[in-house]
Amino acid sequence: MHNITRSAKTIVLALLFFFISNTVLSSSIFIPMDAKSQSNHLKAYGITYFALEKGLNVHWLLNYQGGSFLISDNEELRRELRIRGVSFEVLSDSRTLAILEEIESPSRNMEAVILEKAPKIAVYSPKGNKPWDDAVTLALSYAEIPYETIYDEEVLNDALVLYDWLHLHHEDFTGQYGKFYRNYRTTPWYIQEKAEAEALATKLGYSKVSEQKLAVALKIRDYVTGGGFMFAMCSATDSFDIALAAEGVDIAEPMFDGDPSDPGYPSKIDFTKTFAFENFILERDPMVYEFSSIDMTEKRRHLEKEADYFTLMEFSAKWDPVPTMLNQNHTVLVKGFMGQTTAFDPSTVKSTVLVLAENKLNGEARYIHGIKGQGFFTFYGGHDPEDYQHRVGDPKTELELHPTSPGYRLILNNVLFPAAKKKKQKT
Predict the structure, then answer these.
(1) How far apart are CA 68 and CA 90, in angstroms?
(2) CA nearest to 379, candidates 218, 176, 236, 202
(3) Which CATH superfamily is domain 121-419 in?
(4) What is the residue-averaged pLDDT of the chain?
(5) What is the pTM of this model?
(6) Could you tell me which residue, 195 or 379, shows the higher pLDDT?
(7) What is the pLDDT, as a whole number, of residue 423?
């Protein structure tokens, strides 16, 4: 009787996964993502994206061997795995079913999430070479995930509707040119950047760069609330929210926009307009390389590099698959790294926003996620996960030297997130 019951359960489970994934795979490609089994975690994301482009069945196995991938077998896929140096295993149908059965168990904090399509990716970035690089474009290029670059003109002409995923990196949406004034105002690149920004604002019909950047921020806001996904790092996180909160208020000093800021402007800031932050204090001094009290960079000077790690929070894979997906990794401790905006003061993070990772030693939020309207956003503090204190003009990181980077994995989790068949978060 026991054997009959067990057999019946197995048959039911097989039928269940038949309807979930449209097919019971005769054989599957298993891509492990734990520290021991995978030699190139970052390129594994590119392989998964490749499989989605080819229309293969893909499951993301949350919390199973570091967030592994299960893909329907295909000779072209096997060849691509070998070329890119990604570790994999070919599984029989019985082994595939055993893994899915284990994941389905109510006692296991695991979930098999179906990935449905390859998201179309846009990177918001100015044209030409800049004196800094972008961790996301480095990750996308290394993983061989295609993306398109857009900037203000395209955003203002409603090009965002063409994309599933938008990345913002080293950008200042407040019109203060990154608050680089004190250290770089006499350098050729700063002078050129300012002149180009002013010329673009004029071309697009705005009298000030701050007004044009606000218009761009509002378009991005509408993109997210309409169902888009936005991923921001470094100064694009807080400067974006500050621009939204300061809509209709001049917070820029004369060296930035040619006229004084509004008298008493701190009292005119509207925190109800922001995505993630509230109750922050703006930095009014143009000689200070900081936007507001959101950022924790100046509050962590006592923190030694060797002790600078942040912890990924644990969530229920079955009940909260979204944050679980974004936190998939082969370690729960990730090396810290700095940026213009390094981390977020928890007292400024809205209660509706989920903290995905925190530096417990310094009491700071490093990685946060939220819902805005029908869309999603993730803010990730810091500039480059494999360059602790990246400075203007420093050479870019060579990801060939960091193929298993946990910090870069978090970026690529977000890239795949729009591909997932969503389940409503329960908590």
Answers:
(1) 13
(2) 236
(3) Class I glutamine amidotransferase (GATase) domain (3.40.50.880)
(4) 90
(5) 0.91
(6) 379
(7) 54
Contacts of 347 (CB under 8 A, 6+ apart): 279
pLDDT 10s digits, 175-230: 888 887 788 788 988 888 888 889 999 999 999 999 999 999 999 999 999 999 99
Retrieve residue 286's tokens: 């143009």
Q: Residue 69: is it exposed, middle or buried by C-beta count within 10 angstroms (0-12/13-18/19+)?
A: buried
Decide: helix, strand or coil at residue 374. Answer: coil
Q: In whole angstroms, what is the distance from residue 229 CA to residue 135 CA?
A: 18
* Interval 55-76 mean pLDDT: 97
Pairing state between β 111-115 and 58-62: antiparallel
Q: Residue ranges of the domains in the chain?
A: 2-115, 121-419
CATH architecture of 2-115: 2-Layer Sandwich (3.30)
Q: Indicate the DSSP class of residue 426.
A: -
d(Cα 69, Cα 71) in Å, to the nearest integer? 6
Task: From 191, 162, 179, 420, select the one nearest 283 (Cα to Cα).
Answer: 179
Render pLDDT for 404-424 as a digit per residue (tens, 0 to 9).
Answer: 999 999 999 999 999 997 655
Task: Output the CA–CA distances (angstroms, integers) from residue 290 to 11, 179, 201, 239, 276, in the order listed.
Answer: 60, 6, 24, 10, 18
Altogether, the residues listed in the chain come to a count of 427
Domains 2-115 and 121-419 share a fold: no
C-alpha separations of 60 from 66, 145, 152, 304, 362 in Å: 10, 17, 34, 36, 33
Phi, psi of 417 (to 5 degrees): -50, -45
